[in-house]
Write a structure and sequence with these properties.
- This protein is of the alpha+beta class.
- 28% of the residues lie in helices and 27% in strands.
- The strands form twelve sheets. A seven-stranded mixed beta sheet has the order 36-35-41-37-40-39-38.
Length: 1178
């Protein structure tokens, strides 16, 4: 009884004490429990309330509307046990220090919370009250000014009669105060504006409206909409607005007129160096660019190829016809607004660059035999603007008493951007004593350059009727008068004699076969014997080239003609939207309007068939294989640029490298024949091997930049990473994309026409070895693989990297030669196969040199490596020997000396041996490693890095870490990782590091890189490694029926079962419901999926597949959509979109507005129908 009584008393005391306290709770201030506290909506939040003093129990109450004395706590933390309705529902939790945790903060949690804290059983509870303010970041996270669609910090607005300018911060909580300020700030004239706050579903939109005064023109004002963002909810707290207007007609009466030649660089000045704001417009009201300095330093240009310097000078790099017009520059120094106006016009020099007179050649001075009465005509072709032509006398040397002109007719014919101008005139020579008369077709126009186009000529006057256009080649020619009867009689006799001779001595011959006619030289109008011999010699050289192609370097006894090996792979062109699109076939290069130009670049990775295509073009030209003879250039010149060191003229290169040694043509002859050719084409093969690539003044650079041979079609081949720095604006880029399965099948049919079993075996090996299949997308590698696999397919099946493949090729080349040599040489060859350190060093030094020489003089290389070594590597096929020249100083006796040059059979052989030496250099680099690797751009030397990683594990670790640390080099780290994927822990460590970052697949990737990333994702899936994030940058094509993502390149990714986040960013894409639901289905296969994001595209307004929506909801997968700067989240309960911040639904009206805004910002790319004509070889 005593124990029970004691317990009863204790309970009563405790209950009584609690009743007293609840009746009058007095909140206490605590440093660890501040009020108010700001929590972000949509994420977990903690109401901080902690103390250094320990506690026994803690109770949390909602004390917003009523005293807690009559309320139950929402959460109880007693004896280290959690309870209460808020905890049971999952809404609240508690930190061990007593702080209240809100698992998902919403606007409803904006309330006052009271914590009842019990520190001991003997002391009364202590109460702490905390007011929670819920914050929501606005959408977008910066001030927005009406009529400003750009998220940039500076907005440019032209006055359009609107009397009010409004700035808003939309849908935030709490409201963010705004104010308008002028810039530069003036205290004398404060700005008056109206402030407003709107409530939308508990989210607040604050705005300030400013009345824009009517001002005299021109005007320029800089206004600042500034937010007082004390809670740091905004990404940018200021928006700079530049308002302006111009009225050139009222402010500048005499604009400066500027006339420049097309494709030249133009500088348009504006104001002084003290400009704070500069705005350039081209009428009517087309903004070219603007800049502001001071409050922010910001420049924005609306046209590519333009620039603004610090003084406001507008620079147009290569001016075109579309740049013509009136340019207005409005500028301000902060005090005064001023305007400058330029009228920019272009002129185009004609082609040819002189007035053309029928009967006169390009010599610009000729003699015509004419009668005393007749007609004269002269024409200027392709000129802009139209010029004025006049027939007259130089220096006024004749008068009307001597000759009169009549029936003057001037005709103009527009050809797009240029005009043909023709002047015809009749003349009558009155003075019968005049036997010779000098006239001139003079040209005049807005630029003095046109006056140089005039053509003078001498008229030899005869009393006989002579056609006006009959040219006289010699002024000393004697006129021999022969009776007409005699001439006619002689002609009749001659014709009869020829007919009789043919009937007596020649029998009729059968018609030529089609294959015989193929051997014919391309037709030339008015072909001369000299031109025929010249073309025949070119053709003989090209036949030597294309008749002996060696797919495997050491198989010299089995050459192939190029037409039996050539298989066309993928080919693309760079469209106007900077995206690569299919060109269809190489036959479209000369005629397709999408790549129509006199300058084209054919680019591709090493081994993708650039040189092979060049040989195919040579074959087609020699055989006349176009649709008709007119489609082929009359003369085709193919220059291998690696031979061009020291060459100063095209004629010199043709004489040295394209004509036989016993040719009778000299350089002057070649130069003349090139000028006389009715049409010609030029192929410059291997710009990446050009030894003078850095010499901007060189001949090749002048050709590329169109300073010479402006109208000659030029095709330049190079690696994609070795583009000329001074390409003209008219240059069209074309690239080769390699072999797909169909191309590989066709190639196998070419080399194994009657062996389907071997072809099937080769395809089976590729299907079983994805790494080998990846490498064999390069035509060079596939050709080598196809031929090598016929000899030994056992070892090749186990290849798992580019290094392994190349090591196998080198081994086969050595082994093939060993079988042909005696034992002594075999021993020597085995030593040289393994010990090639001197060659490694020389190859490395070649890559490291700025000039990048493509070969060595044979004598010098033999001195370095030994004559036997060089000879063996020539026989193996690793080295290639060719004739070249050494160009000495012009004053030396042997100005041009023939030499033998040794080079690697393919540049990849050079990178293979250089990689061995680079491994040794990396081992001793120490702290200088990054500086060392910086000298080798992986964009240029992809295989060098891959070979290094495949050769040495330690070097691979350093190289991969370096590539992963440099922005933009991450894709090459993936390629290098695959070279070491059999190295165990090292590969897994790099793979984990990669998977923890964002993996990006860009539309600009090569198929090899896409395939490599696919392999990495597949290995990560097998190893059950979580991939943190995958971004598809305009590279997504579709989700196939197996729930695999298909890329634009055609590569399929593995089923992504371990992906946490997918980001699809595709400009100009509008997806259907079925397409997006297919993506949902595929991505729900991932066990750890948390988020799917779509950007820069249009998605459907609603989704109705309940099964998918339920899965997204149960898996708590967040789906977001960013069509522009706005952001939306998918409501998985309704299948509709909500604003990303807040609870508002995206209405149909707002959805339509988003779509319209998107389509305005991203108009469809222009569609050009490709030409179906087969074009010239160029």
């Amino acid at each position: 009884m005593m124990v029970d009584f004691t317990l009863l008393v204790t309970v009563v005391v405790v209950f009584s004490l609690a009743s007293v306290v609840h009746a009058n709770p007095t909140p206490t201030e605590l440093e660890g429990c501040p009020s108010p506290q700001y929590l972000e909506s949509g994420v977990p939040g903690t109401v901080q309330c902690s103390s250094t003093e320990s506690f026994i129990d803690i109770y949390w109450y909602d004390s917003t509307k009523a005293d807690i004395s009559n309320k139950d706590p929402v959460l109880v933390y007693k004896g280290f046990k959690k309870s209460g309705p808020g905890y049971t529902s999952g809404e609240f939790d508690v930190d061990p220090n007593g702080s209240l945790i809100i698992t998902d903060v919403t606007i409803e949690h904006e309330m006052t919370f009271t914590a009842e804290r019990i520190t001991s059983r003997s002391d009364p509870p202590v109460y702490y009250s905390v007011r929670v303010v819920v914050t929501v970041a606005p959408t977008p996270a910066f001030p927005v000014v009406d009529r400003c669609d750009s998220p940039a910090q500076v907005c440019l607005l032209r006055h359009n009669g609107t009397s009010e300018l409004t700035c808003e911060v939309r849908l935030s909580r709490p409201a963010i105060p705004l104010a308008w300020q002028p810039w530069p700030t003036t205290t004398d004239d404060p700005m008056a504006f109206i402030t407003d706050i709107r409530n939308t579903s508990s989210l607040l939109t604050s705005s300030v409206s400013l009345a824009v005064p009517s001002v005299d023109l021109p005007s320029l004002d800089v206004l600042l909409c500034k937010a007082n963002d004390t809670l740091n909810l905004l990404r940018k707290s200021e928006m700079v607005v530049i308002t302006y207007n111009t009225n050139p007609s009222s402010s500048v009466k005499n604009p400066e007129k500027i006339l420049v030649e097309r494709e030249s660089q133009v500088h348009l000045p504006c104001g002084t160096n003290d400009n704070l704001v500069v705005i350039w417009e081209r009428q009517p009201e087309e903004v070219v660019g603007f800049s502001i300095n001071g409050i922010v330093n910001y420049t924005h240009l609306y046209e590519t190829g333009t620039d603004l310097d610090s003084s406001g000078l507008l620079i147009i790099a290569q001016v075109g016809i579309h740049h013509e017009g009136r340019y207005t520059c409005l500028y301000s120094d902060g005090v005064t607004d001023k305007i400058t106006i330029h009228d920019l016009s272009l002129f185009v020099m004609p082609n040819p660059a002189y007035a053309v007179v029928p009967g006169c050649g390009p010599e610009r001075y000729c003699v015509l035999k004419v009668g005393r009465r007749g007609n004269l005509t002269c024409t200027v072709r392709g000129v802009r603007p139209a010029v004025t032509l006049e027939w007259g006398f130089p220096d006024g040397e004749a008068t009307a008493d001597v000759v009169t002109f009549f029936n003057r007719q001037l005709h103009s014919h527009e050809n797009g951007e240029t005009t043909d101008v023709t002047l015809s005139i009749g003349y009558q020579i009155h003075d019968t004593t005049v036997q010779r008369l000098t006239l001139e077709c003079s040209v005049s126009g807005p630029t003095p350059a046109f006056s140089k186009l005039s053509t003078p000529l001498d008229l030899l006057v005869t009393d006989n009727d002579v056609p006006t256009t009959q040219a006289v080649t010699s002024t000393n020619q004697l006129s021999v008068v022969i009776p007409v009867v005699v001439i006619v009689s002689l002609l009749i006799v001659l014709i009869v004699a020829v007919i009789l001779i043919r009937k007596v001595f020649f029998k009729p011959t059968r018609a030529k076969k089609a294959e015989d006619s193929e051997q014919g030289i391309p037709m030339i109008s008015k072909t001369t014997d000299e031109m025929t011999r010249f073309i025949g010699e070119l053709r003989g050289t090209y036949e030597n080239w294309y008749s002996a192609v060696h797919p495997i370097p050491f198989l010299e006894d089995k050459p192939y003609p190029v037409n039996l090996l050539f298989v066309e792979g993928g080919i693309e062109y760079l469209a106007t939207n900077d995206r690569w699109e299919s060109l269809g076939t190489y036959h479209n290069i000369p005629s397709d309007p999408r790549v129509k130009s006199s300058r084209r670049i054919l680019e591709g990775e090493p081994g993708y068939g650039k040189t092979t295509l060049t040989l195919q073009l040579a074959y087609e030209w020699c055989r006349g294989l176009g649709e008709s003879a007119e489609e082929l250039p009359d003369v085709l010149i193919i220059i291998r640029l690696r031979q061009f060191r020291g060459i100063t003229s095209l004629a010199e290169a043709i004489k040295l490298f394209l004509l036989p040694k016993d040719t009778e043509f000299g350089e002057d002859d070649v130069d003349r024949l090139l000028k006389e050719a009715p049409s010609k084409g030029l192929i410059l093969d291997g710009f990446d091997e050009y030894p003078e690539e850095g010499d901007k003044s060189s001949l090749i650079q002048d050709i590329v930049s169109r300073k010479i041979l402006q109208d000659t079609p030029v095709l330049l081949t190079t690696r994609s990473s070795f583009l000329p720095r001074n390409m003209t604006a008219v240059t069209k880029r074309i690239r080769l994309t390699g072999f797909n399965g169909k191309c590989q099948d066709l190639y196998l049919k070419r080399i194994l026409p009657d062996d389907e079993a071997s072809s099937a075996k080769i395809k089976e090996i590729l299907q079983d070895n994805p790494v080998l299949a990846d490498l064999c997308q390069a035509p060079l590698f596939f050709a080598m693989f196809a031929h090598l696999s016929q000899q030994n397919d056992t070892d090749i099946k186990s290849i798992s990297s580019a290094t392994g493949f190349f090591r196998y090729v080198i081994s086969c080349m050595h082994h093939h030669l060993k079988r042909k040599m005696d034992d002594e040489n075999v021993v020597k060859l085995e030593r040289w196969e393994k010990d090639h350190r001197e060659l490694d060093k020389i190859a490395y030094e070649c890559l490291d040199e700025q000039d990048r020489p493509s070969g060595w003089e044979k004598v010098e290389l033999c001195n370095s490596l030994g004559e036997s070594f060089v000879d063996q590597y020539l026989r193996i096929g690793i080295f290639l020997e060719e004739d070249s020249v050494r160009v000495n100083d012009a004053g030396m006796i042997d100005h041009i000396k023939p030499i033998q040059v040794i080079q690697f059979n393919h540049k990849l052989f050079g990178e293979w041996y250089a990689a061995h030496h680079l491994v040794e250099v990396i081992r001793t680099a120490g702290d200088d490693l990054d500086e060392l690797l910086d000298s080798f751009d992986p964009n240029n030397y992809q295989y060098l890095f891959r070979f290094v990683c495949g050769i040495d594990v330690t070097a691979a670790a350093d190289v991969i870490s370096y590539l992963q640390s440099v922005d933009g080099y991450e894709p090459y780290a993936i390629l290098c990782m695959l070279e070491q994927k059999n190295s165990g822990d090292l590969f897994i460590d790099h793979l984990k590091r990669l998977c923890s970052t964002r993996i990006q697949i860009s539309y600009a990737n090569t198929r090899i890189l896409d395939r490599s990333i696919s392999q990495i994702l597949e290995i990560a899936s097998v190893k059950q490694l979580q991939v943190n994030s995958l971004t598809l940058d305009s590279s997504f094509l579709e989700m196939d029926e197996n729930h695999c993502i298909v890329l634009q390149s055609g590569i399929r990714l593995p089923c992504l079962t371990n992906l946490k986040e997918l980001w699809i960013d595709t400009v100009r894409a509008e997806y259907t419901v079925s397409q997006i639901e297919s993506i949902f289905k595929g991505m729900l296969k991932s066990k750890c999926l948390e988020r799917i994001t779509f950007a820069s595209c249009i998605l459907p307004e609603r989704f109705e597949d309940e099964h998918i929506l339920v899965q997204l909801q149960e898996r708590k997968v967040t789906v977001t959509w960013h069509p522009s700067s706005s952001g939306f989240t998918l409501d998985t309960q309704t299948g509709t979109w909500k604003y990303k911040e807040g609870r508002d639904d995206l209405t149909h009206r707002d959805y339509v507005g988003e779509v319209d805004t998107y389509r305005t910002m991203h108009p469809p790319a222009p569609q050009v129908k490709p030409s179906r004509q087969r074009g010239r070889a160029m």
